[in-house]
Amino acid sequence: MSFGDFKALDDVSLRINKGEFFSLLGPSGCGKTTLLRIIAGFENPDEGLVNIDGIDVLPLEPNKRGVNTVFQSYALFPHLSVFENVAFPLRLRKTAPKAIRAKVGEYLELVQLVDHARKKPSQLSGGQKQRVAIARALINEPSVLLLDEPLSALDAKLRQHMLIELDSIHDKIGITFIYVTHDQQEALSVSDRIAVMNGGKVLQCDSPYEIYENPATEFVARFIGETNLFDASVESVGGGRASLSVPGLGKVLVETAKGPAPGGTAIFTIRPEKIHIDHERPDGGRSDLNVFEGVVEEPIYSGFQSKFFVRCGDATLKVFKQHASYQEEGPDIAWKDRVFVSWSSDDGYIVGPGSDA
After folding, report:
1. In 3-state terms, what secondary structure has residue 106?
2. Which helix (H) or strand (E) holds 292?
3. What residue numbers bound the domain in which 342 lies?
4. How do residues 90-127 score in pLDDT, each as one tens digit?
5. pLDDT at 257
6. Are 23 and 169 members of one domain?
7. CB atoms closer than 10 angstroms to residue 182
């Protein structure tokens, strides 16, 4: 899919299961909204097809595809009540008044807005407006609901609350949701599967667990959560484990089923919460343990956790320490303290370069 010389989508192929909560995740300009608009019928791809329930819907008009869209701008009619906004698609279809009353009541109940049925959109909060938009999109009972960054206009706390409600609505009605977002936490929280996109390509399509714990590319590792990333050379591979040489840090062991050949290069990543930090050197009897001595350059207290930037040789490691309880504070680690950081070889990964376009 191209716009002039700009290639918005590059050989994208996805299979989304019926009833799935599926997210398209990536930075602005990565192609996720273009893909959503193609599914909705608002854009035509240069080639390919869009199958919904076994039917190629590309030749069909948007209103014939069994697909509805919820936009971030709500797109409500300001002069109509909540009831009439939700009823609007049914009135277009000339549904009988009695059936309209029953069905609108059902969907207002679903989004918990029965008591607000006679209000105008101007009398509602942002979260309530979005629930009206969702009810209106669902009342035609589409096969697929498309959600284009529907929570981006809300503040952080309301966005989290609405996300839980959206997941609950999906569980109740069971239709396919395709959710576009640039917010990694939103996608990780509610999705059955996530497609991470960048530069018009799908870099990885998998469960939230696999996306976070086993990123396929450097871009996915950087974009999803926080991580430590290092260029490395491969010293040896054997027994399901690779020995890497990381410039400025030293020898690092990593579990790998298909590591690069000795003498090759690799990109190594380890999540900050996987790294243990202490004043004392850990047990040296474990052959799978990576241990480095360093100095705390910057401790940052964040309430539920502390972040430490630890200088080990010529490399800096980011380490997260969770505060499990008030009584169990752990080591009193401060600025300039000499510490030991360690992690198991199976907690780190070798990732591919991917697309950083």
Report:
1. helix
2. strand 289-301
3. 220-351
4. 999 999 999 999 999 999 999 999 999 999 999 999 88
5. 66
6. yes
7. 18
CB 89 within 8 A of CB 136: yes
CA angle 56, 188, 143 (to 5 degrees): 25
- Boundary residue ending a domain (189, 219, 249): 219
Q: What pLDDT, on a 0 to 100 scale, did the predictor assign at position 235?
A: 93
The total domain count for the chain is 2
User: Which CATH number do you get for residue 243?
Assistant: 2.40.50.100
Distance of alpha carbon 162 from alpha carbon 166, whole angstroms: 6
Considering only CA atoms, give the Rg of the chain: 25
Low-confidence ranges of the chain (pLDDT < 50): 355-357
How many residues make up the chain in this entry?
357
173 and 302 both lie in a single domain = no
What residue has token string 């990536």? 26
Confidence (pLDDT) at 1 = 53
Residue 217 per-residue DSSP state: B
How many whole angstroms separate alpha carbon 349 and alpha carbon 118? 55
